[in-house]
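The instructor's notes for this session suggest beginning with a concrete chain rather than abstract definitions. Hand out the sequence below and ask the class to guess, before any prediction is shown, which regions might be ordered.
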Amino acid sequence: MTMDLGLLILQVVIGLLMIGHGAQKLFGWFGGQGLRATTEWLASMGLRAPRFWALMAGLAEFGGGLLFALGLLHPIGPLAIIAVMIAAIALVHWSHGLWISKGGSEYSLVLAVLAAVMGLWSPGAYSLDRVLGIALPQPQTFWIGLILVLVAVAFALLSRQRQPLAAPRSAGQAAS
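After discussion, reveal the predicted structure:
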């Protein structure tokens, strides 16, 4: 019972944090910039089809966080979180080193590792999977899902343009 309660607390806290991050990207809630700004931000990093990747990032965070918090369709929620955290590390944080105080990958790495551990483990007694009698085959679902996650993230990173697009000019700016 104590272990299941600990798993529940971990799932709910991480899940709610990820839901919040997804809501920032998708809807501009909680101080976020919304889908348009997320799309522009990803375009500035050279991602092709930036709106698609902005939607994928927001949905992975929001939907993955929701599944994770509820313990539903385990391990799909943890895999979605792993995907977005690996992408965040590669696109945003890697060049800043490890420590978050310098913009590094520390926070994203911790979330990815926690999601991986939880993905390999059971969602516990206090989960919708347990209540509904859902049990995806483990560990096969996790390992196959992880391979798909790594392929998708690699595809996104490898499809980047060599030179990121310049920020769009406003109508009043003259070309130099």
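Then share the key points. The chain has a mean pLDDT of 91. The chain is about 65% helix and 0% strand.
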